[in-house]
Specification:
The protein has three domains: about 100 residues, Rossmann fold, CATH 3.40.50; about 100 residues, NadA-like (Rossmann fold, 3-Layer(aba) Sandwich), CATH 3.40.50.10800; about 90 residues, Rossmann fold, CATH 3.40.50. About 45% of the residues lie in helices and about 15% in strands. It has 15 helices and twelve strands. The strands form three sheets. The chain has a four-stranded parallel beta sheet with strand order 2-1-3-4, sandwiched between helices. Strands 6-5-7-8 form a four-stranded parallel beta sheet, with helices on both faces. Strand 9, helix 11 and strand 10 form a beta-alpha-beta unit. Helix 1 packs parallel to helix 14 and helix 4 packs across helix 15. The chain is globular and about 55 Å long. The mean pLDDT is about 95. The chain binds 1,3-dihydroxyacetonephosphate and iron/sulfur cluster. The site of 1,3-dihydroxyacetonephosphate has 14 residues, from helix 3. 1,3-dihydroxyacetonephosphate (13P) binds next to helix 3.
Length: about 300
């Protein structure tokens, strides 16, 4: 069944001149059929440069919106229209405008996990892969409003020494991970390096060896001479980690580290997306033009 499904998707992909982009948290079969798998930064870069008429975006709404902002001439499809991001839904453009009125001199940096309307009222966008570099590149005398992730924001404050005004949003999946989860995994896996995502709360960060985006975790694990790693992020990343490093051991930190929205897409939904050309994600002007400026400024700051 699955082999036939894969065949049909590949056939239809060719007919539609489509590419499949998938986030590192997608289920294994979706990652395996994708033309490109990556973190939010890598996916934005890919969406901006990919040559195709159609992008099937296997991720959540804000990611498909970012692709539509960068490539309005392409048809961007999200195979499940209910695949959203609860953290992105915690912030609104009105709320950001109220903060801007309170701090009129401040620059607004929005994490890419935000709605297009919020990007449109931001000066810069960032991902977990370039947030520190981006904030470091801003004039030292400028106040910064950072939305919506308070945990990533706190991590950026810690790494840059910049004071920032933080929006109180968070990722419910990463917020469920505790310091006890890490301590348990460490005790059972002596010598393992703990790689944690900056969406984790500070008490988790305090127990981690490295704070990295999902893409940075893949690079770190590939280059490291260590043989075992405790992975403190959504469990989907384990698929590619294991595939790329068959000689190394990867331990998921907790069974609770699952993002239900990232798991909504499967091979059948990809096939239906290509058959029926659904669900089309668009961002109309003037929001698109304004949001694109913030995203373009982000793409200029790629970590070295
Ligand atoms: P990255 O893959 O960019 O690290 O982001 C994690 C995430 O939560 C995306 O929703
Ligand atoms: Fe949003 Fe968290 Fe899921 Fe990422 S893992 S899509 S931040 S809820």
């Amino acid at each position: 069944m699955s082999a036939r499904l894969v065949e049909k998707i590949i056939e239809l992909k060719k007919q539609r001149n489509a590419v499949i982009l998938a986030h590192n948290y997608q289920i294994g079969p979706v990652q395996d059929i994708a033309d490109y798998v990556g973190d939010s930064l890598g996916l934005s870069v890919e969406a901006a440069k990919v040559r195709a008429d159609v992008i099937v975006f296997c991720g959540v709404l804000f990611m498909a919106e970012t692709a539509a902002i960068l490539s309005p001439e392409k048809t961007v499809l999200l195979p499940d229209k209910n695949a959203g991001c609860p953290m992105a839904d915690m912030v609104t453009a009105d709320g950001v405008n109220q903060l801007k009125a309170k701090y009129p001199e401040a620059l607004v940096v929005s994490y890419v996990n935000s709605p297009a309307e919020v990007k449109a009222v931001s000066d810069y966008c960032c991902t977990s892969g370039n947030a520190t570099e981006l904030v470091n590149s801003l004039p030292a005398d400028k106040q910064i409003i950072f939305v919506p992730d308070k945990f990533l924001g706190q991590h950026v404050i810690d790494t840059t020494g910049r004071d920032m005004i933080l929006w109180p949003g968070y990722c419910p999946t990463h917020a469920r991970i505790t310091a006890d989860d890490i301590n348990r995994a460490r005790n059972a896996n002596k010598g393992a390096i703990v790689l944690a995502h900056p969406e984790c709360p500070p008490q988790v960060k305090a127990c981690a060896d490295e704070m990295l985006s999902t893409g940075q975790m893949l690079t770190f694990a590939r280059k490291s001479e260590n043989k075992s790693f405790i992975i403190v992020t959504e469990e989907g990343l384990l698929h590619t980690l294991k595939k790329q490093n068959p000689d190394k051991k990867f331990i998921g930190v907790s069974d609770k580290a699952i993002c239900p929205n990232m798991k909504k897409i499967d091979l059948e939904k990809i096939l239906w997306a290509l058959e029926d050309m659904k669900y089309v994600i668009t961002v109309d002007n003037p929001i698109r033009d304004k949001a694109k400026k913030a995203v373009d400024r982000m793409l200029e700051v790629i970590p070295g």
